[in-house]
Amino acid sequence: MNNTADVIIIGGGVNGCAAAYYLAKRGVRDVIVLEAAKSIGHGGSSRNGGGVRQSGRDVRELPYAMYGIQYMWPTLSEELGVDVEYTQKGNLRMGKTEEHIKKLQTLASNARAVGLDVKMIDKKEVKEICPYLSDEVIGASWCPTDGHANPLTTTLGYYKRALELGVRFFTEASVKELKKVKGKIRKVILADGTVFEGETVILAAGYESRAIARTVGIDIPMMRLIDEALVTEMQPPMTDVMFGCATADFYGHQTVHGSFVFGSDSGWEPTDEMIDPSNNCVDPSKLITNAFTLSASCRAIQDYIPALTDAKIVRSWCGWLDESFDGVPFLGPVDEVPGLILACGFTGHGFGTAPSVGLMLSQMVVGEPTVVDISALSYNRFLPVR
Amino acid sequence: MFDIQEKLKEIGPYIEEADDDLLVCRCEEVTKGEIRRALHQGIFTIEEMRRYLRSGMGLCQGQTCGKLVKGIIAKELHVSPVDVYPASSRAPMRPTEMRILAEDGGVCHE
Amino acid sequence: MKIERYDMIVVGAGPAGLSAAIEAAKQGLKTIVFDENERPGGQLFKQIHKFFGSKEHKAKVRGFKIGEELLEEAHRYGVEVILNATVIGLYPQKEVTVKIGEELRHYKGDAVLVATGASENMVNFEGWTLPGVIGAGAAQTMMNLHHIKPGKKVLMLGSGNVGLVVSFQLMQAGCEVVALADAAPRVGGYGVHAAKVARCGVPFYLSHTIVKAEGTDHVTGVVIGQVGADWNIIPGTEKHFDVDTICLAVGLSPMAQLLKQAEVQMADTKGGYVPVCTKDGATSVPGIYAAGDVSGIEEASSAMIEGRMSGAAIACYLGYMSEGEKNARMKELEAQLDTLRQGMFAPKNRGKLVEKTDEGIAVSMNLLENGFVADDEIERYPGVTHQKGIHPVIECTQNIPCNPCQDACPKGCIRIGKNITSLPAVEGKKECVGCGMCVASCSGQAIFLVKEDVEPGFGEVTLPYEFLPVPEVGERGLALGRDGREVCSCEVTKVSKAPAFDYTNLLTIKVPNEMLMTARFYKKA
User: Fold this and answer.
1) Would you give the distance in Å from CA B56 to the centre of its chain?
2) Residue A1: is its pLDDT beyond 90?
3) Most C CBs within 10 Å: which of A289, A302, A312, A318, as the mutation test of the C interface?
4) Residue B10 φ/ψ, nearest 5 degrees
């Protein structure tokens, strides 16, 4: 087996798969993707709520979030040959109290300041957008260019197209260590001892990126957080907007399939059972939901969307967030380790930006300027200054 | 470590079979042919198959088709069904109305 | 918000769950049992046939009766049995969430026993989603719990005990079973179960499977065909039957989802996806136990013993029983379980062709391939003798763990001996009085009384009869052979009903002497 490639991508999630695809598309086909789990996209990529939004984002991410929505999402299904179910029908962030509305107003004016179309709407307008909402909703912020997509088919769509273009994928390939050769990144060593070698290494392994980067002396300031999600049985077509609320109790949408997917958490999720104490790493096969969260989520959701009160919940699940210190990802080359590029710390909102992030990662590999400036997301922003 | 391109080479291209239009997952209306085609595109695990085609994601939670899907995957990948890793189990074990789940004695934290 | 606490929480009020709860409650554990059904007993309440085994295993008692007895015992020891209670999650710290009525409740146990049983497997073929294609267990639920006839004309796929027992029950409910098919080359279930179906006239098609179900909005017919060595249908072997129902009895799969959710170590085996457990049911997660079909498919009789073992193990785990007491109890239970796991159908023989009985007698190939012992094979078994005067003829030809017939005979005519799986032998020296207790006690309906020369040229055969209406004395009809074909006309000369027979009526028919060893069933003319 040939274990050497031009580019090695650690992490077969949506960002890793997208990067592999955009590399292969531009002709860099000697690419290896290493995924620790048995399945591609087994982490946050398959566990998120599918939001493709700009509103609510940090100004440092907004440019590439907008780039993806303008230039990439609309044609993605066609490009991947898989229906990614991209729906651009707006994001409604709801409020029930004057306090909520004030909070939403602040967020909206911040977004408008950087050129995003977000406005405040009143109760009547909210009902026009979605008649199924509670009368207690007194207003909302509205971003008509936001939307949602299917994270499952998007991730696997990138994977499938990358495979077709010759990218090599390895599953059950858990990376333990990186190694430099002559001051440059070179070796990627698996837990089972297998060694891969590459000119460039993209580290897109979620929270696990932290332990991997530490092996070359880079400590990425991010933490681990768990969030849950649930899905209802199929409902008649009711709405195509993305929902959120001022208190961030839940977010979600009705999928093309008809089921509603919502994400939520109670804030009390214990996580000890899922962490292997011997290495303080997450066991990817263990993702244990909490006995209280599902009920708490249902209470929050039906308070806003009473029409769903009789809908049956079919499944609930959870997933890890790689929560960066300041809520935005680490994206870009690491100066101290030439050849190493970081793409992690997406803090639970990395799905919607995966196309533009994948594209920019491919640009970084070949040394081209990225479509938008992302220097503010460099890992350097946390270098000690005092 | 599992080499996906290597396995794809081993199993060769998708060849249509007479019973490809046979329904396998009746909740989500997924056929045998769709599953077989996906396998030759590199969708190898039951989890990936669920995400890609929705097989086993319906109201019965794969109770009916789980074993059938497993059999098709095993046959196509030339492995024993025992070596095809099963899907995760998710609460609620039986589909349950939102209003009932909400009624667990807890209060809204607003 | 409230979390209710118990020493032991049991999920599933079937034979394993109830037995475990009883065993634990006897030791003083505060025990609660949840079941999602409106009736307790799991599959037991659908079982209207008599069980096999020995006295300790409640042999010759009908399944639903065993369920009633278990439930009564559970109540006696203070076990709380909550019905219509669906456990929807098993979380860390042995917490279960249960849907009861219109609310969700939280419970924590110091131990949790998962005894959720199994679900029916499906096979798919053209038309398998048509209404009318149902699981055999579903058919049983319709008939025996809801008193609804699943259909008029039925084809059964599967010759394991479920397929055989349900075929018989379908006929008892008044359905016509047009054929019994199985892709395997040999009958999978007990020969005695097969024989009682075959003698009713149901043809067996081994090495056959379903090609397609016919019909547009419901089943109107079925085509089966013979499978070749490559498991494909051999062209030209297709056979059509007009049916409105196709029953599938193609195995069970453990319902172990709760255990998997609880991160118990699991193993994927030929018998399904099961928790890795010790023999007393302890899983890899301390305090979580599994018993019954969820840890591997077996008979209800084994599930009850497994349940008792888990109950004792949990009592010991929580300090309600000393290690020594537990070990003594375990020894007793293990011995009972071992008995059930002996014989030709022992787990170790699964999938193997056993050609000779323990006694060294050749197994009937006709029985394995056609469902009945051929007339020229029957004479070689020790239960089949020729004597002057009335005597039992025991057509029990396989080593299965069952011995009620031995105890049933007040005269000691029937001998099985210490080894419960030995074939019953008829002792020629003891005098049979023709009481019929052996006939009624045989769960396999394999015992007949034969008496030659009741009048010149004619003799009598007494056979077990569990159909309605019960024929009248003097009624004339047809005697059927082991293969279900008509052998001669006959007259009903006696009908015996007794409480001790437990609804197995004894029908005596008069046939020519030369038909005494052939006539085995009665059909109204």
Assistant:
1) 5
2) no
3) A289
4) -60, -40
Q: Report d(CA C392, CA C438) in Å as an integer.
A: 8
Return the bridge partners of A260, or none. A254
Determine which helix (DSSP H) or strand (DSSP E) holds A189, and give its type and residue range. Answer: strand A184-190
Backbone angles phi, psi at C83, to 5 degrees: -100, 170
Is residue A44 within 8 A of residue A149, CB to CB? The reply is no
A289 contact C CB<8A: yes
Can you tell me the distance from the alpha carbon of A212 to that of A205, in angstroms, rounded to the nearest whole number?
9
**Nearest alpha carbon to residue A277 among A268, A286, A269, A289:** A286
Best to test chain B binding among C122, C211, C263 (most B CBs inside 10 Å): C122
* Burial class for C362, CB neighbours closer than 10 Å (0-12, 13-18, 19+): exposed
Interface test with B, best of C36, C273, C276 (most B CBs within 10 A): C273
Which pair of structure tokens corresponds to residue C182?
């199985």
Nearest residue in chain C measured CA to CA from A317: C261
Other CB atoms within 10 A of residue C272 CB: 23
- CA angle C41–C45–C46, rounded 5-degree value: 135
ipTM > 0.90 (yes/no): yes
For the CA atoms of chain C, what is the radius of gyration? Answer: 24
Domain assignments of chain B as residue spans, ordered by start? 4-104
Q: What parts of chain C have a pLDDT lower than 50?
A: none
Place of tokens 């049933």: C408
Angle between helix A14-25 and A151-164 (nearest 10): 40
pTM, to two decimals: 0.94
The vertex-A98 CA angle with A97 and A100, nearest 5°, equals: 65
Cβ(B69)–Cβ(B82) below 8 Å: no
Provide φ and ψ at C24, rounded to 5°: -75, -45
State the Cα angle at C113 between C109 and C117, rounded to 5°. 145
Judging by DSSP bridges, how do beta strands A4-10 and A31-34 pair with one another? parallel
pLDDT digits (tens, 9 = 90+) for A328-348: 999 999 999 999 999 999 999
CA dist., res. A185 & res. A297, Å (int): 44
Stretch (H or E) spanning B66? helix B66-77
Query: Per the CB < 8 Å rule, is C104 touching B96?
Result: yes
CA-nearest residue to C1 within chain A is A292
State the amino acid at position A206 in one-letter form. Answer: G
CATH classification for the domain delimited by A4-49+152-222+326-382, as one of 3.50.50.60, 3.40.50.150, 3.40.50.300, 3.30.9.10: 3.50.50.60
Flag if B64 and C122 touch (Cβ within 8 Å). yes
Helices vs. strands in chain A: H and E counts, helices first: 9, 20
CB B108, CB A245: distance < 8 Å: no
Rounded to the nearest 5 percent, the helix, strand and coil shares of chain B are 40, 10, 50
Give the orientation angle of helix A14-25 with respect to helix A354-366, to 10 degrees.
50
Rg (CA), chain B: 17
Whether the Cβ atoms of residue C104 and residue B100 lie closer than 8 Å to each other: yes
Choose among A190, A294, A308: nearest Cβ to B1.
A190
With beta carbons less than 8 A apart as the criterion, state whether B45 and B85 touch: yes
For residue B26, give both structure tokens.
Answer: 């009746």
From B86's Cα to the closest Cα of chain A, the distance in A is 11
pLDDT for B110 equals 47
CATH assignment, B4-104: 1.10.10.1100
**Residue C522: its H or E element:** strand C521-524
CB contact under 8 A, A171 and B4: yes
Distance CA C430, CA C391 (A): 10
CB B8 within 8 A of CB B42: yes
What residues does each domain of chain A span? 4-49+152-222+326-382
* pLDDT tens for each residue of C449-504: 999 999 999 999 999 999 999 999 999 999 999 999 999 999 999 999 999 999 99
